[in-house]
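The passage that follows is intended for readers who have already worked through the single-chain material. We present the inputs for a multi-component assembly, then the predicted structure in tokenized form, and finally a short commentary. You are encouraged to pause after the input and sketch how you expect the pieces to fit together before reading on.
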Amino acid sequence: MKPALLQLRTSDFGLRTSFGLRPSGFGIATSLLLLMALCASPILVSAISPEALFQSGATAYRASDYSRAAEAFRQSVVLQPASGALQDLGNAEWRCQHTGAAILAWEQARWLDPFNPSVRRNLGFARKTAQLEAPDLTWYEVVSTWLPANWWAWVAGISLWLAVGMGILPGVLRQRKATWHQAVAALGLMVFLLSLPAHLGVQTRSQIGFVLQKDTPLRLTPTLEAQAMTRLAAGEPGRWVRARGNYVLIRTSRTLGWVERDQFGMACPRAGKKAG
Amino acid sequence: MCPPHDNGMNRGLSRGIGAARHSLGSRFKSGSAGLFTPACSLSPRNIQHPTSNIQHPITYIRAVIGRRALSRILPLLLAASYSLSAQPSGPAASQPQPRIVLRGTANDPGTGGVLQQQQMPAQPPRDPFMSLMMSQPKIEIPAVTRATAAFDPPVVRPGEQSLLRVVFNALEQSIEWPTNFTAPHQLEMRPGAHGQLLQMTPTSMEPLTAFNCRVRATSLGSFTVPEFVVKVDGKRVTVPSARLDVVTAPPASVLPAERVTLELPVTNLFVGQPVTARILLPGSPAGMVQGLGQPQLSGQGILVDLGGVRQRFEMAPRGGAMAATFIYETTLTPVLTGKLTVFAQGFTMGSRFSGPVGVTGPATTPVNLFRYALLESEPVELDVRPLPREGQLPGFAGAIGSFSIGPPKLATNVLRVGDPLKLTVTITNRGEGPLARLVAPTPPQAQDWQVFAATDFAPTQPVAQPQPFIRFGPDGKPVLTSAAQPGGLQGIVTFHYTLIPLTETARATPPIPFSYFDPKAGAYVDLTIPSVPVTVRPGAAPGDLSSLLQAGSAGDEPEKELVLSDLTVSRGRTASSLVPPQQQSWFPLVQLAPAVAFFGLWSWDRRRRHLEAHPDIVLRRRARHALRRQRRVLHRAAQEADAPRFATAAVNAMRVACAPHYPAEPRALVGGDVLPLLPENERSGRGGEVVRRFFAVTDAARFGTTAPAITDLFALKPDLERVLQELEQKL
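Having made your guess, compare it with the prediction:
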């Protein structure tokens, strides 16, 4: 074993073997750095925690430093999405005159927490001020807004397996099927069936995005020299159809065309990339 | 500017018109009754090129001339045309002239008509819009941009204001006017008004743009603003230098600069409070007065109502005497709070007006001899306060002023359920301000009535009586120009509501809340439209109108004012990702877990039931397990050379292997029970011998008095293994 260790030439890694392992200068420095990193890791973690970033953004917002507040809220949201942080991000973006980013943030906050009345009012306020229209939702998409988008999958899964369990477990447990077993099974099945449209609504709503930049050209083809059919206002909704290169084909309430990928923000970001 | 009588052509022309007026008598008609009819010149050019736009005079003379009258004025026309052809070109010559239309009467077509028929060959009728378009003179942008600069007046006293007026023959949008330029430090320069108009040339219209700069000199001397370069359409245009003389006593030959004056009745306003703004351009002491072109109020945070513009000539006090003054009157409404600055500006336009002009008293306007000059007034500062939120009454729709309400009038007092009823109410403006943008009160939600909003908004705006106006003179101090007290009728608005009774229990129309803000009292005043008694009879087609009422009340809920929310104090509901779980890869696996669990449970239950139905399977399985256990003991005993244990383990192994076949308790089995399970040849062969030998040894050990010889048992181990293997295969 010892020759094998020597063949590894541990001195190359800052450690050299003489009588056991004796650290070299580089090894001492590396060890110290590692030690300091280990000691400071709790501090670092707390400094970049979503809560700390959120508080930092709130402080900057109260000091009317809206761009810094928006950056802090954005970092907080990147670490862990939260409806309150997204709402404040929207407020900060609105103060920075970034209508598209503000509406996108509020829509994401509404995606997480549709019960938040402030977000709903903010969206109404922004759309009324900027003369924008809300996304045109189908009935099952409207149903999907009754609960947070993340809930519907769990509701469907739990209700399904509850119904299945209520059908299987009494027999397995050598119990006579009682009325309540059947009632719970029927209830679970009913909830599962009712959640299916909402489930579908979440799927289709995840394709909705919003124009981020003012006067975004809606192109006829996904090329830089393409003819601009019209120009979209910041915050105008659209549905992701497909992507090609750096361009995204979106369907607005009036027409269909290509916009640059950076000019269109999805309420459900990874869904957009997946679609692309 | 030269007076018109200095021009020989105009003098002859005036004579011609005077002769024509004298000869025609009552057949000479002005453009419209009450409108100002300026002195005019006759020109064949103007007959061929009538124009009409905002710079073009809309007052023109329509003369209905008969054959005899035309025979009299025809020589005059020819003389006038001759004099025009001899007139040197100049600014005055390039001005558009009033239009002369020669017509015949119905019975007598007149010479003019004959002439027109002879001159105009038969042509297909042209599209009137196309004719109108073709009749417009084209706008020509001069290839060479010229710039002029001059002080107005060129000689001032110290501290007196003069305007540095720079004029270009280019469009305003094409001029990159510098924010500052070099000037003597004794001159205090501030930017002033700027504007553009299209001036008439003999064949077309040409843009004219003026930039004013307010200049005050602090010391005596002669100061020159050096020439500077301005970019016009990307080309460099040199603005010539201009000189300003500052003396203690200007010579009498230097006339004071023409100024417009902005008059506002009050400068302390509430936001949304309309006031009448008057722009005054006084005439010369000789009685010559001209109109303003493109008059406007400039400033941030104000709204000017162009729909209520009135302009007129009126005698107004000036320097202790009455002088003809052009007055442009409009409505100004502040829309922002705080200190707002507003000033008036406009081009001198001679006798050209952009709308009807009323005339009160004598006034003479120059027709040709004038120059386009951009005039401006002193800036006026408005102190605009917000409306108080406390004390706001229902039905407030932004009305500010002093109003009174007339008795509401109904089309009828007896009606049936479902019949529409028209309610008319008159709002009278009793305040000093104009009646601008008065919004009808929102119809209320009534139990027994369906009320539709006022659809027929018909405001009437009589000309206001003279009111006290604050005029801001050249020194910037306000001057009260009239001592007449305000009051009287300022305007009337009539609102019409349509009411439909929903039940016969309705006894009176619902009161309609309405309130206004009185700026003098600083409080809201209730002016609710009172209810009027009616008699409602059952309708011809009874129906459940309550549903209609409910639908209406549900849809007409007052909309909450949308405002941006405050900052949240908590991060709110969190999630690991914005992506819904069903789109994440782990979610199907998570959903598979209960499926697998349930399937396992189901399978286990099925197997359990199967084993319950076939207990021999369990016995054999247990026997196999016991046999393996005994064989391990057997091997261990053989290794340790423990013969008794070896024999016991061998017998136990054979017993547990045979027990499921009977079935029986393994301990109850004897060697005779084992032998039948061996193959036929083994029973009497080596296998049977091994079985008998081991059972005999163990029986002797258990029941005998002497210990049997068991040392040779280890030699039987291979045969024993074979027997056990035979028995195991049968399990």
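Commentary: The mean pLDDT of chain B is 75. Chain B touches chain A at residues 560, 562-583, 587, 590-591, 594-595, 598, 601-602, 604-605 (CB under 8 Å). How closely did your sketch match?
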